[in-house]
């Protein structure tokens, strides 16, 4: 914690009183409790970027916020770290493993609305703004809204890329391929279709692509994932979409 304290306090006018390391595959991310110069207690998130891309991500977060997309507010940044607001909520990764949440529509509609707003940003070629690696750890649900996280990189593509990535993450997250998770994917795509028409065959292709990547990473689950991929490849449509 000493290094974190020095790194933050020399740049931002607060005193850190507690710090908790949060999950991140690539970077060091901390939830910190601080006292401001006015004596106010506050929680912040400090992200130490392993590839010195903090400035790029901070600028992107501010750009997205200006376009009305809900992301954490950036308090301070340099090339190495971002200090941003703490969003009090639940990661969507946790919601999909709770049966009491799976059947609720509010969080799903908030997610679809957030994605629709993101996909309204287009480049001159007509492609939409997408995540390069979309999963439910990138979203926090506050009970009323969705906030997007992790914008070190982004890509321009079709919306089917993001929808396929989300669907694959939901389906192959333990417990995998349950009827309830197929139903969540079904509702996700139907809700998205109400605001933006997409090609479900392209969505299926992206689901299969993401599942292949998961199979390559997960040795113990590889055979089961490959079986599910073969089942999906044999179906010309997304069979679970009514």
Which properties best describe this structure?
single chain, 242 residues, Phosphorylase Kinase, domain 1, Transferase(Phosphotransferase), domain 1, 2 domains, five-stranded antiparallel sheet, three-stranded antiparallel sheet, 10 strands, 43% helix
Fold and architecture overview:
- The protein is α+β, with helices and mostly antiparallel strands and 242 residues long.
- It folds into two domains: 2-85, Phosphorylase Kinase, domain 1, CATH 3.30.200.20; 90-234, Orthogonal Bundle (Transferase(Phosphotransferase), domain 1).
- Helices cover 43% and strands 20% of the residues.
- The protein contains nine helices and ten strands.
- It has helices at residues 2-9, 54-66, 92-95, 99-102, 106-118, 159-171, 179-195, 200-217, 222-234, and strands at residues 14-22, 28-36, 41-48, 74-77, 81-85, 90-91, 128-130, 139-141, 146-148, 155-157.
- The strands form three sheets. Strands 1-2-3-5-4 form a five-stranded antiparallel β-sheet. It has a three-stranded antiparallel β-sheet with strand order 6-8-9.
- Helix 5 (106-118) crosses helix 7 (179-195) and helix 6 packs antiparallel against helix 7.
- The longest helix has 18 residues, at 200-217.
- The chain is globular and about 60 Å long.
- It starts with a helix and ends in an 8-residue tail after the last helix.
């Amino acid at each position: 914690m000493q290094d974190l304290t020095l790194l933050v306090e020399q740049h931002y006018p607060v005193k850190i009183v507690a710090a908790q390391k949060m999950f991140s595959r690539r970077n060091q991310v901390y939830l910190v409790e601080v006292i401001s110069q006015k004596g106010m207690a506050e929680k912040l998130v400090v992200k130490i970027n392993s590839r010195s891309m903090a400035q790029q991500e901070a600028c992107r977060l501010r750009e997205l916020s200006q376009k009305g997309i809900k992301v954490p507010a950036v308090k301070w940044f340099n090339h190495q770290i971002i200090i941003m607001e703490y969003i009090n909520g639940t990661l969507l990764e946790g919601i999909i493993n709770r049966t009491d949440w799976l059947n609720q529509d509010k969080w799903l509609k908030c997610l679809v609305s957030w994605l629709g707003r993101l996909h309204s940003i287009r480049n001159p070629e007509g492609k939409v703004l997408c995540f390069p690696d979309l999963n439910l750890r990138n979203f926090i649900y506050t009970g009323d809204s969705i906030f997007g996280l992790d914008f070190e990189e982004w890509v321009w593509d079709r919306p089917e890329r993001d929808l396929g990535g989300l669907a694959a993450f939901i389906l192959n997250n333990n417990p995998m391929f349950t009827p309830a998770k197929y139903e969540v994917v079904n509702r996700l795509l139907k809700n998205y279709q109400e605001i933006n028409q997409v090609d479900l065959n392209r969505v299926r292709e992206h689901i299969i692509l993401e599942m292949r990547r998961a199979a390559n990473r997960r040795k113990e689950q590889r055979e089961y994932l490959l079986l599910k991929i073969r089942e999906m490849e044999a179906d010309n449509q997304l069979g679970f979409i009514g």
